[in-house]
């Protein structure tokens, strides 16, 4: 992958330089390329926008895409760390170098001048601008591309835009979806509009749902060449998350329909017992190399990215911050581990208990294959964004929220039968107790993957911090606490005079 964005000016130059430029200019003898003519040119050669689409996915893994040189600024997986810390499930257990110390204290989250608030804002709106660039080139937000290839491009662009707005709406809105009338974010559907005021959560979510619905339709016959690309099943997974967050009964029924389709038709099975945790012999040799959550080819991964040495991620990466076997921060003392009280909730007959070491680090869940402390210099282990297991648990959650308890238990057992020796206890659960169990299983199964905050927010729950946090030990934070919601950053407030209109 190359770190390259082809914006409208560059795209126009590419079109004028292409083999069809003479005919194109004869048909439209003007100094300005119209959106219609640009779309026609792209329909003739969809490859003209391939750089833009590749750039969207590259932005998700590149360092500095949040506008800083900070070692917590490295794309989506950086914000997975942010959100896991906000939920309290990820405990910072050392601050030799200071990264995430403001998060642990929950002081930077309430300081609108802090980069903690700026970095994700800049990152997600950067993605939105890049997606809008593609959408503009294809005729605008309401355009319906005629060609198959251009529909695939439009579908991916709209899905990425929706993904970005979904994360912004979770991180920067205290109430999550709330009543729908809370004003939360500026909405941009083109690159040409001036600064916008904040739109309500209803408007934002309506746009997310609309974009993903179109994306699913446009991508239904898209055969992707790598897992970093959004296909129909990625778009369905994202839509399921958005609808679960909005949470009407109709939304939840659609969540069940979407997750059923992903589970039954995507070709992605659940993560196996052998893939979930390292199995070591008496010398420490790894006996199951399929474990480690480090290979994009893992069949259960729906959306992820193949990291190579050429990409050059090392110190500044998710692996650098989380993995003690990578030569970076976790190895030299800035360890991050599972919340002590959450670990206690995992029974001994649950294979996932073995993911965690005595120091609370997940060195038997996420690890560089060589498993030498500090021995891996470059992060060639891959990133996971969404895996099939998420859809099974979300399916169970939606059924429980609709009071379809027995169906929810059946769905949840599909995963837990691969994790626990005995799941008969589930049959005694109903109502809020079942919902609580599903939330607990979400926290355990997807620890370190950036999912618990989303679950906490949409289910309007609270979490109490355990004893191994550096700060706020024993403190209960509800989902809408100011401390665990990011502030709109100072830069936006200063540069957008319409923000509070």
TrEMBL record:
Residues 110-246 form the SusD-like N-terminal domain. The keyword Signal applies. Keywords: Cell outer membrane, Membrane, Signal. Transmembrane segments: none annotated. Its main location: membrane. Residues 364-499 form the RagB/SusD domain. The keyword Acetylation does not apply. It is found in: Cell outer membrane. SUPFAM superfamilies: TPR-like (SSF48452). InterPro entries: SusD-like_N, SusD_RagB_dom, TPR-like_helical_dom_sf. Pfam families: SusD-like_3, SusD_RagB. It comes from the Bacteria. Belongs to the SusD family. This is SusD-like starch-binding protein associating with outer membrane.
């Amino acid at each position: 992958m190359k770190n390259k964005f082809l914006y409208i000016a560059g795209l126009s130059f590419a079109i004028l330089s292409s083999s069809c430029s003479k005919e194109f200019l004869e048909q439209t003898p003007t100094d300005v390329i119209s959106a219609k003519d640009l779309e026609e040119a792209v329909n003739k050669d969809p490859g003209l926008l391939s750089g833009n689409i590749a750039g969207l996915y590259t932005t998700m893994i590149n360092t500095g895409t949040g506008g800083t040189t900070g070692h917590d600024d490295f794309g989506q997986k950086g914000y997975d760390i942010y959100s896991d810390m906000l939920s309290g499930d990820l405990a910072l257990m050392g601050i030799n170098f200071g990264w995430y110390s403001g998060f642990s204290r929950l002081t930077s989250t309430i300081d609108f001048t802090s980069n903690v608030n700026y970095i994700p804002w800049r990152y997600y709106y950067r993605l939105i601008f890049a997606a809008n660039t593609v959408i503009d080139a294809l005729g605008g937000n309401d355009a319906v591309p005629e060609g198959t290839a251009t529909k695939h491009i439009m579908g991916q662009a709209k899905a990425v835009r929706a993904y970005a707005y979904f994360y912004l709406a979770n991180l920067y809105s205290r109430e999550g979806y709330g009543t729908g009338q809370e004003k939360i974010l500026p909405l941009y559907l083109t690159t040409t509009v001036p600064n916008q005021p904040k739109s309500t959560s209803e408007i934002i979510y309506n746009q997310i749902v609309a974009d993903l619905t179109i994306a699913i339709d446009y991508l239904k016959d898209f055969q992707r060449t790598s897992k970093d690309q959004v296909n129909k099943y990625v778009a369905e997974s994202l839509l399921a998350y958005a609808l679960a967050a909005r949470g009407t009964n109709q939304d939840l029924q659609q969540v069940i329909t979407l997750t059923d389709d992903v589970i039954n038709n995507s070709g992605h099975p659940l993560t196996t017992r052998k893939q979930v945790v390292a199995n070591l012999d008496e010398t420490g040799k790894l006996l199951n190399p399929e474990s480690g959550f480090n290979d994009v080819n893992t069949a259960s991964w729906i959306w992820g990215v193949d990291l190579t040495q050429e990409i050059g991620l090392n110190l500044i990466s998710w692996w650098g911050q989380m993995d003690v076997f990578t030569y970076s921060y976790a190895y030299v003392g800035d360890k991050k581990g599972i919340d002590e009280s959450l670990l206690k909730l995992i029974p001994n007959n649950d294979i996932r208990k073995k993911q965690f070491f005595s120091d609370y680090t997940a060195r038997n869940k996420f690890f560089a294959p060589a498993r030498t402390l500090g021995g891996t210099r470059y992060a060639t282990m891959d990133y996971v964004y969404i895996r099939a297991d998420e859809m099974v648990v979300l399916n169970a959650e939606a059924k429980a929220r609709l009071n379809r308890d027995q169906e929810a238990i059946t769905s949840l057992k599909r995963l837990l039968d691969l994790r626990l020796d005995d799941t008969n206890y589930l049959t005694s659960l109903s109502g809020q107790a079942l919902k609580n169990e599903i939330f607990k299983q979400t926290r355990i199964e997807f620890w370190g993957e950036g999912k618990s905050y989303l679950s906490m927010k949409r289910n309007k729950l609270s979490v109490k911090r355990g004893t191994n946090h550096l700060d706020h030990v024993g403190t209960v934070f509800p989902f809408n606490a100011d401390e665990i919601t990011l502030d709109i950053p100072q830069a936006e407030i200063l540069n957008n005079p319409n923000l509070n209109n």
